[in-house]
Amino acid sequence: MSIIIAGERSGVGKTTVTLTLLASLRRRDRLVQSFKVGPDYIDPMFHQHVTGRPCRNLDPVLTSETYVQQCFARHSQMTEYSLVEGVMGLFDGISSLVISPTLREGEAPMSFANDKGQITDFASTAHIARLLDLPVVLVIDCSRLSGSVAAIAHGYQSFDPRIKIDGVVLNRVGSDRHLSLLKDALKPLQLPILGVLRRQDNITIPDRHLGLVPTAELPELNALIDRLADLGDTCFDWQNLLPLLKSQPLPHPPNPPHSPSSIRIAVARDRAFNFYYQDNLDLLQQLGAELVFWSPLEAAAIPNDVQGMYFGGGFPEVFAQQLAENTSVRDGVKTAILQGMPAIAECGGLMYLCEQIIDFEGKSWAMTGVLPTSAVMGARLTLGYRRAVALQDNLLVKAGTTVHGHEFHRSHLTLTPTQPLFETSRYDCDENMGCEGWGFPANVHASYVHLHWGRSVEIPQQFLKECRTYG
Questions:
Q1: Residues 347, 429, 435, 467: which is the catalytic one?
Q2: 263-470 in CATH: which number?
Q3: Is the pTM of this model over 0.85?
Q4: How many angstroms separate the CA atoms of 234 and 229, rounded?
């Protein structure tokens, strides 16, 4: 069955509720597979820290509706329980063109469409619930309401009859009296209360300019997870929750066979670089790559006998001084790339290939110098899905190819390339977002746009082809 943990809006405590459930399940020695709706990297890190299993992103923009269904079917069957954490509020999505707006009489669309023929909740938690035919558990922030909780719950329960809400979790409840008022208000709805979380002063996950601080930077994380497990043992109605979480067999395509490993790819993974979709890493391995994880922060040199490099996103600006001081690695990366080694660099990785990073305090730190530009941190947040059309043949795609990705950063470059990789626009409209991405040297693909390769296996295939040629 599985369930989706959804919120009535952002900030209601979806991640806390999800981690509390996962921590308590793991304390009971239950194997559980988690999923996260949307493009986020950091929440899945917390899921994986608790479960010991990679969290999978479910995002029909970056992949496709079919891929979302296949991904969930494949991985949910590998464990006894599975759980999906939603994104934003239950019905918060983006506008997307309706492929086939004409419906037969009595037929319901998969998503709501406006009078312009646009789906208005595409990629929302509700959209994923419909795609996977999963019930929803709605998290409600009760810190500033009592009787009004019933109106909120009723509205979400009745808004889309195709969504089945199996219960609610009441978060930030202040007292026994407060809880009594909430229960009395909800009683006429006959909507089960599956959990009650009191206001917690000792459970806080720190955040900064791009969201939560990643797990690798939290030395007290295990103690926090233990507190969440303690909370989960007592705050949930486990008798009614466990049957909902139980995975069930679903038809799914077989796991792709792994090709024999014939090529080694150096994947930067440490506190500075840790934004990777697990499915991308899996695809590289399935296509015959051996992944060599290493740390540009702490290594003495780049790994030996590798034929390609992959720098994911992350927070190089936070660790800019340490990256700058590791001159042997900086020089080694630059030398390898200038000698023709193929390299993918997304967002934080792009910043590392620049001449320097200028941090929030205006301090300048030398980077590899592969790209003749600098990354400058600022207050402006660039955020959103992108439709990107390749302007030239490059390391990953041919000219004219359209890919869908996601941007999320607070830096900008001092110099833009004369021959950029992509012309980008917002996913949900034709608003031009400009040209971006470095494909010079020709063996480099450096871009702010994060890509999930789930529906574009030709991207890692092309990368590995170039790596084999180099090797």
A1: 347
A2: 3.40.50.880
A3: yes
A4: 9
What is the residue type of 40?
A: D
CA-based nearest residue to 290, from 255, 259, 257, 332: 259
- 55 noted as active-site residue: no
CATH class of 3-245: alpha beta
Per-residue pLDDT 10s for the chain (471 aa) are 699 999 999 999 999 999 999 999 999 999 999 999 999 999 999 999 999 999 999 999 999 999 999 999 999 998 999 999 999 999 999 865 444 333 333 444 455 555 555 557 899 999 999 999 999 999 999 999 999 999 999 999 999 999 999 999 999 999 999 999 999 999 999 999 999 999 887 778 888 777 789 999 999 999 999 999 999 999 999 999 999 998 766 555 556 666 666 899 999 999 999 999 999 999 999 999 999 999 999 999 999 999 999 999 999 999 999 999 999 999 999 999 999 999 999 999 999 999 999 999 999 999 999 999 999 999 999 999 999 999 999 999 999 999 999 999 999 999 989 999 999 999 887 789 999 999 989 999 999 999 999 989 999 999 999 999 997
3-state secondary structure the chain: CCEEEEECCCCCCHHHHHHHHHHHHHHCCCCEEEEEECCCCHHHHHHHHHHCCCCEEECCCCCCHHHHHHHHHHHHCCCCEEEEEEEEECCCCEEEECCCCCCCCCCCCCCCECCCCEEEEECCHHHHHHHHCCCEEEEEECCCCCCCHHHHHHHHHHHCCCCCEEEEEEEEECCHHHHHHHHHHHHHHCCCEEEEEECCCCCCCCEECCEECCHHHCCCHHHHHHHHHHHHHHHECHHHHHHHHECCCCCCCCCCCCCCCCEEEEEECCCCEEECCHHHHHHHHHCCEEEEEECCCCCCCCCCCCCEEEECEECCCCCHHHHHHCHHHHHHHHHHHHCCCCEEEECHHHHHHCCEEECCCCCEEECCCCCCCEEEEEEEEEEEEEEEEECCCCCCCCCCCEEEEEEEEEEEECCCCCCCCEEEEECCCCCEEEEECECCCCCEEEECCEECCCCCCHHHHHHHHHHHHHC
Establish whether domains 3-245 and 263-470 are of one fold.
yes
Domain boundaries along the sequence of the chain: 3-245, 263-470
